[in-house]
Amino acid sequence: MPDKDSKATMDTEDTYGSKASSEPQNLRPRVFHSIKFFVLCHSLLQLAQLMISGYLKSSISTVEKRFGLSSQTSGLLAAFNEVGNTALIVFVSYFGSRVHRPRMIGCGAVLVALAGLLMTLPHFISEPYRYDHSSPEDMSQDSEASLCLPMTSAPAPTPSNGSCSSYTEAQHLSVVGIMFIAQTLLGVGGVPIQPFGISYIDDFAHHSNSPLYLGILFAVTMMGPGMAYGLGSLMLRLYVDIDRMPEGGINLTSKDPRWVGAWWLGFLISAGMVALAASPYFFFPREMPKETHELRCRRKVLADAASPVSKGENSPSEQNPGESLKKQDGLVQIAPNLSVIKFIKVFPRVLLRTLRHPIFLLVVLSQVCMSCMVAGMATFLPKFLERQFSITASYANLLIGGLTIPSAIVGIVVGGVLVKRLHLGPMRCGALCLLGSLLCLLFNLPLFFIGCSTHQIAGIIHQPSTQPGLELFPGCAEPCSCPSDDFNPVCDPSTRVEYITPCHAGCTSQVAQEGLDKSQVLYTNCSCVSGRGPVLAGSCDSACSHLVLPFILLVSLGAALASLTHTPSFMLILRGVKKEDKTLAVGIQFMLLRVLAWMPSPVIHGSAIDTTCVHWALSCGRRAVCRYYDNDLLRNRFIGLQFFFKTGSLVCFALVLAILRQQSKEAGHKSTTSSPGLEQQRLMSGPKKQPEDSSV
């Protein structure tokens, strides 16, 4: 029986049909009673939501430099997006259609927009960025502050703790705390958007149009992560304090290692987009008349490509379009008539029963390994490219957003098309997953050898356990009063030796040489440089910058092959559990992927990156941001983690295929020994249970 809201909605729709369309005030309600308009709004909202969720990953190294964070801390910050999401997904899915779904989506989107605005707050409450800590003003940092001055004419260098105060430490903790709270709210606000939106579309769309709408939703939404990296590429070209530039301007370029881009501006733009996309949801009815007409267009093509939206965790479209989208509503279908207390009591029992399925458990473990690889790569690949190949953060984001993300999308679509067109059964789905994982692992091997060692840095020993000194040539910088916490790198082009500051190179003067496109700053009369020759401002260029394109092409190809396993692995999950447990199995899979992969993986990768640091910047006596890494160690540990997770996924898929073969042999043996009467009885009962719904 329809409830009052449903009756009122149907009566309103009938009224619209009987009235003349000349009244303009009736146009707005009719638009908000169209499922097509809802699909359009939801596509744009999920696009903006994934864009704001993925934007932090594009600016992770910039946030580290701006606020003095280690990679472990920044990885934990990125993982906190999943904390709020995981904590509430079960209860939000439980309430399902009991609430006004469009309004809940709108409220969640507003919370996401507010969280995005909260992420920008640290920029406005912090002091302007000072890229030179040796002088009170940035304007003089390239002249006298970083030069070698006699001790008699310069104050003694103050320890790094000297400028610290309780206010400074409190401000740092408050800024970091605000970002953690904002990331948590970002995850909480995103909880109702996807499951409520997909179930709403499935409830009121024509059953033949559901694959088409899902294909549109998938195609538009999956552009979100790519747009996040593209937005990061644009914003990081702008200086961080573009809204409060010093009077004399700045003497930095985007290639300078001290450069910090306008990371906060991307959050501001993304939050505005989410807020705009959220506004229509407060005008949609709780229920609308079910769509009665089938669209005459290429819905079959889009249905083949229909796959889950969001980080590659959601289920693909199945043979039955009316059933597939309900599965993505998490746990809403498990016990629609149970109270919250009974739901909590029955959940652990059904959870254990589902985890006892060997196919389900192994496939989820393989997806956990693959998601760990994806989460670590998505979070720290931009930083890895910056450090390994000496490219700017903007260019690194452009490569990832233009090559890697589209390759992953193509892999997901191709996997869905292969499963649909070739009608792959469980055995062939397992073989496709195994093949994709094996090829992905093989393309990972050359990445260990694409890169080069860190160039020589004066005064820094490439052993993390050794306390770094300040001098490469003993006594050359003794007459200087070099600040211990200053960072203004210069490079000797003849020997490719880099010095932390001109002072550490013993330089006493500087010259600005006008070039064709910009002025080049040179430091002269350097006592620590052979021939006292001039040194160039800025870090030494990498000898292997040209290898960044082959590297990113191999990474993109591996991403496409890894994404190829997404749809067939999901089909193995849906066919590996009992029919009544399928919806719960999908919900459990979502939670396990978040708890075991998307939450810990950025922290694991960040901790591994921190172990390769050879020179830390100190802030109030604590380690802040890393200045220099051992590039060989960084490459081996970062790519090694990727190799480890890909190997785990390959082993799990191999075990899945072995179990499937064993079950196939047992099923063939039973069919040959069964009696003709029993065989006839099975054939007669076939239509009651389709092969797709049978246990593997």
From TrEMBL:
Annotated stretches, region: Disordered: 1-24, 306-326, 666-696
Transmembrane segments: 37-56, 76-97, 104-125, 170-191, 212-240, 260-284, 359-381, 393-419, 431-451, 547-574, 595-618, 638-660
Stored PROSITE patterns: KAZAL_2
Stated family: Belongs to the organo anion transporter (TC 2.A.60) family.
Biased composition (Polar residues): 312-322
Any Gene Ontology biological process: monoatomic ion transport
GO function terms (MF aspect): bile acid transmembrane transporter activity; sodium-independent organic anion transmembrane transporter activity
Organism this protein belongs to: Urocitellus parryii
SUPFAM superfamilies registered for this protein in UniProt: MFS general substrate transporter (SSF103473)
Compositional bias segments (type: Basic and acidic residues): 1-10
Localization terms from the record: Cell membrane
Topology of the protein relative to the lipid bilayer: Multi-pass membrane protein
One Pfam family of this chain: OATP
Gene3D superfamilies noted in UniProt: MFS general substrate transporter like domains
Xref: NCBIfam families: oat (TIGR00805)
Biological classification of the source: Eukaryota, Metazoa, Chordata, Craniata, Vertebrata
Keywords for the protein's UniProt record, in alphabetical order: Cell membrane, Disulfide bond, Ion transport, Membrane, Transmembrane, Transmembrane helix, Transport
Protein name as it appears in the record: Solute carrier organic anion transporter family member
This protein's GO CC annotations: apical plasma membrane; basolateral plasma membrane
Domain Kazal-like: 470-530
